[in-house]
Amino acid sequence: MSHLASQLINLFAAVILMLAFAMLSQRRILSLIHLFTLQGVTLVAATAVVGYVTDQPHLYLSAGLTFVLKVVLIPMLLHRIIQRLDVRWDVEALINVPTTMLIGIVLVIFAFNLARPISQLSSSIAGGTLGIALACVLLSFMMMIIRSKAVPQVIGFLSMENGLFFAATSATYGMPMVVELGIALDVLVGILILGVFMFQIREQFDSLDIRHLEKLKDS
Amino acid sequence: MEALAFVLAFPLAGSLALAFVGHRDVARDVNVAFSGATFAAACALTVRVVSSGPLLAASEEFFIDPLNVFLVALTAFVGLTTSIFSRPYMRVEQDHGTMTPARMRLYHSMYQLFSFAMLVALTTNNMGILWVAMEAATLATVLLVSVYRTAASLEAAWKYFILCGVGIALALFGTVLLYMAAEKVFGAEGGALLWTHLDQAKTRLDPNIITLAFAFLFIGYGTKVGLVPLHNWLPDAHAEGPTPVSAVLSGLLLNVAMYALLRCKVLTDGALRNALAGQLLMGFGLVSVVVAAFFLSRQKDVKRMFAYSSIEHMGLIAFAFGLGGPVANFAGLLHMTVHSLTKSAIFFAVGHATQKAGTQVMSEIRGLIKVSPTVGWGMMLGSLAILGMPPFGVFASEFLILTTAMREQPWATPFLLLALGVAFASVFGRVLPMVFGETSVKPLAHAPALLPVFVHLALGLMLGLYVPPYLIGWYTQAARMLGG
Fold this sequence. Notes:
Distance between the termini of chain B: 31 Å
Oligomer: heterodimer
Radius of gyration of chain A: 18 Å
Helix content of chain A: over 70%
Order of helices and strands of chain A: HHHHHHH
Shape of chain A: globular
Largest sheet of chain B: 2 strands, antiparallel
Strand content of chain B: under 5%
Largest sheet of chain A: none
Helix content of chain B: over 70%
Number of strands of chain A: 0
Distance between the termini of chain A: 64 Å
Largest interface: A-B, 47 and 53 residues
Strand content of chain A: under 5%
Number of helices of chain A: 7
Number of helices of chain B: 19
Structural class of chain B: mainly alpha
């Protein structure tokens, strides 16, 4: 049973990593949101499996919270934003796809090496996946750097949050409930503020290209 | 216990109340009243902690000791004086039409929410809640920075959000790793993130995990402190937001982030039994001091210039705590206090000056002393104080830091002296013509609030000449707690 479960968790972890790579190369914003939603679903499944195997009821709560936030609310908000702003066109990355992929692979190797001594110490059944979680964080970080439009940057930010949640599950069976609630609240408020910002940026610059936001420099 | 509840309840209630009445004219006074009540409660809490020692409350979720109680008092105090300053300042902005009633409501409500988030971050015993509160403070200030809705303020706020959001996300990863290390000692039930528990068991935490955890926590909270090279958001956010926000960002938020870093450093020192945390703080601190000093000389915008000065001083504080030991820790705490008081006083004076001149460009502000001698003198004295001229408190703490550095890390002193010299030349050279010379500024319709400026400068002066014995006892206790 626990062997099957740990196989399942590893599978989900692999899927989350694949999705992170897919997001890195995806140019259409709509598909990007779909990929993000899918990553949320996988995260919920992984959390629930860990909760079931280890009999930690609060992980179900955490999975439920992730579901409401990352699978329902935030994708809904993002869909509404791109509809209202009409920004479904392809997004331009600053680096081409093959180079991006190569850098991504280097990041994954780096993350695995960094996490290996730590994940051996983990008491969790999913301890081995800490490296994957760290890799997801770094890949999302990279996505935020190479994208020049506002919406993909925000999705990168959210995907980074996914990686962190997965790290919390794989390293320690999740954070204490009160902390997890606080984090969820912060993420929700943050995405609402960013949504409002996008409308204001659009109003000011007639575009959501972040390259307009490079006027403030040290003269 | 009751005092603590009031310290947190007043700003929260204020934020809710101002969300309803924040657009009325009376809101400016309501804002002052709530900040005043918070300050009174903070004083009561301070008296309580000074007289009967550290306090644990609400099933150990809150913890007050000499280290954070002095920051609570300072935060509540600067919160009060800034709200007094913001009364005439915001009135002028409203007359100019840059602030609509809806924006005033947002501004007032977020001001109180920001105070609340900072006070939670300072008083909580839970490292996870500390993270949540830091993120909440970031979100509140993002809204405050963008409140003018100009292109430049939106850009500053976006940059601030993304950079600090990423930084603080890395701090969350660090917190997860910290929890992982703690869980191996305490088991899975609650309490593994409580700082008091962690402090007791710090020698048993796994050094491998803690090293990686501290690296992430350092980058995360270091971004908020504004350490070079993670400082990019800071000058923009200071320059483009309303001046009261610049004052609380520099005077308070940077201190709170430094406090979070210090709590992590104490745990790391205990777990690793080596100087890694101190060396990181020292290295990044020194780089920040030097880089910020040279950037200072290139600024044209007065608020940007003083924002770089904040980076320089936070670097100096980081360097002091990195040195460790009772004297350097004492100096670091003293420097946090005097920097916070002096820098917010400068921003108050700068706020009035830029409103009078109608611009933030330094070369267009001339002869303040002719139109408004008090604003001119406030700016002159504030600049002298922040540059470390002798009778003021900054001199005392910088002197302590430099002499300790000469004894323990002599190689660093030339860099520090060079940076302080460059900073002096560039700031003094810019402020002098702004204050004296032919005038270009017009009088304002509303009398400026100068009480906060001079109260802050007087306190800064007092700390330079004479530190009251109870304050010394307080700093010494906190410095001992920081160890090193």
